[in-house]
Amino acid sequence: MNRKELDPERSPAAAFGNRLRRMRDERGWTQDELGERMGYSGTHISAVETGRRPPTRRFARIADRVFDTGELFQKASRAVRSTALLEGFPEYVGHERRAAEIRLYEVGVVPGLLQTPEYARVLADSAVKRGAITPEQAEERVRLVAERQTSLDRDPVPLLLTVLDESCLRRPIGDRAVMDAQWNRLIEFADLPNSVFQVAPFSMGERRPFDLPVTVLTMPDRSLMSYAESSQRGHLERESSFVLPILTAYHQLQAGALSQAASVALIEELRKGAP
Description:
Layout: H1 12-26, H2 31-38, H3 42-49, H4 57-67, H5 72-82, H6 89-96, E1 101-106, H7 117-129, H8 135-151, E2 159-165, H9 166-170, H10 176-190, E3 195-200, E4 214-218, E5 224-229, E6 234-237, H11 240-256, H12 260-271
Parallel strand pairs: 1-2, 2-3
Antiparallel strand pairs: 1-4, 4-5, 5-6
């Protein structure tokens, strides 16, 4: 039987799942046997252990009772809920680090993989001022942006295809210096041999196939995954047959977007202050 390797450093949910599996193994219980003791199915136990399902307060409370661990699991579950990252995103990042091809579409803000540190900091600090996250969670967001960008520096280098809605370029984030540096970063990205950079202009109108950000990953074995977010959670789709229509729509988006040369020219116009 193949067991998925767990990385407790990946996220609070992964740390919770790793601890749950370790304590279950120490007692010689199967997932089904632990499930019977806790009132959950073995499948549910598996999903929590591998980070695919976050532990609820009730789940953590029962785990503490079954393992006689005081409030150990309850404290760990609070760490899972307090993270600044959307549900599903930490798991997505793990797959992103192994992808052979990454296709991004973003609306409103430059995606994390292309953000400058200053741009990322302004976004995180703004969320703190609004009361959406804590200062500690802001640090987590900024740190993750840097870690994800570092993970792209691997062999073989992944192909990174990006289509940004025009709003990503025109929406002011921070002061002019922050935007100038971010525009420069996008121009540098477009010049990389493993990148494709395009802008979806406002003039695409209803021909734009996506209303929300979306990412499509092509893994080394050519299987497909997609990731999309709502305001409250992220969804990682691992079934290639469900991802294929999204990939087709992405190709349609690219066909209607500006060419890479025209996209860079638009940024240059914005840098010069042209409307």
